[in-house]
Recover the amino acids of this structure.
């Protein structure tokens, strides 16, 4: 029989929902369960997906938060049937390889995006190289990000980047408040590339790199590429498929 572990966000609504659901369906630990059921919003879903990266353990979310783009509708009824009919979406993370001004090397995975952000009042200056070919000698900006298709509806969309279907095998590269070149709106890159960001005048214009939950400050270079050797599985009700939701989002006014 399928076993589930209910993981709840630290809100009254989510905690109460977990208490009711465990009373009906039982509960086990995330480590020993077959499926993790996440009760909360997109933030909790992202935490759970990072927790199971590389384990092939699927996560099924029910919205007890606000936006809930990655979640299914909440219901206490027919959970076993919903899990049996759920459709799987496979997500591959970005791997960030960052080097700091002191020479420390930091690596992290991102299922949404890797973003570079200015730390102080002055704009950042960043050189962008794609597969060892310089593409932008100097981007003056508040920051720049590279997103997964699944993450393209998150920070990337807020920064006016394009929404990318899951099957497109593309990664959007999107500037954040670009000052020079002012009209540069970013690029769509094949998912096989490696992008290198080099921080210019890093002492004067320090930059932080963020991969989902991991922040590295005072970076001098950041390399980003998709890691297809690692995956996470998200389960969706048939009428809430992630691929369809991403397409629908492009027609939302």
């Amino acid at each position: 029989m399928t076993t589930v572990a209910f993981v709840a966000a630290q809100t009254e609504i989510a905690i109460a929902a977990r208490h009711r659901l465990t009373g009906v369906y039982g509960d086990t630990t995330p480590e020993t369960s077959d499926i993790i059921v996440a009760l909360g919003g997109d933030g909790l879903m992202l935490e759970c997906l990072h927790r199971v990266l590389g384990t092939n353990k699927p996560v099924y979310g029910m919205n007890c938060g606000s936006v809930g783009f990655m979640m299914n509708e909440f219901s206490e009824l027919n959970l076993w049937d919903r899990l049996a009919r759920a459709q799987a979406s496979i997500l591959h993370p970005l791997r960030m390889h960052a080097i700091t001004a002191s020479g420390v090397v930091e690596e992290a995975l991102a299922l949404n995006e890797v973003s570079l952000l200015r730390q102080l009042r002055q704009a950042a200056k960043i050189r962008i190289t794609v597969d060892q070919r310089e593409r932008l000698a100097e981007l003056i900006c508040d920051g720049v990000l590279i997103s997964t298709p699944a993450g393209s509806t998150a920070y990337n969309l807020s920064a006016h980047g394009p929404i990318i279907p899951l099957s497109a095998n593309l990664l959007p590269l999107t500037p954040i408040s670009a000052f020079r070149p002012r009209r540069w709106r970013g690029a769509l890159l094949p998912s096989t590339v490696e992008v290198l960001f080099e921080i210019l005048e890093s002492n004067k214009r320090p930059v932080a790199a963020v991969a989902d939950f991991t922040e590295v400050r005072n970076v001098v270079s950041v390399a980003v590429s998709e890691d297809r050797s690692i995956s996470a599985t998200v389960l969706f009700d048939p009428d809430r498929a992630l691929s369809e939701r991403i397409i629908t989002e492009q027609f939302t006014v």
The mean pLDDT is 94. The helical segments are 12-25, 42-52, 79-85, 155-158, 242-249. The radius of gyration is 19 Å.
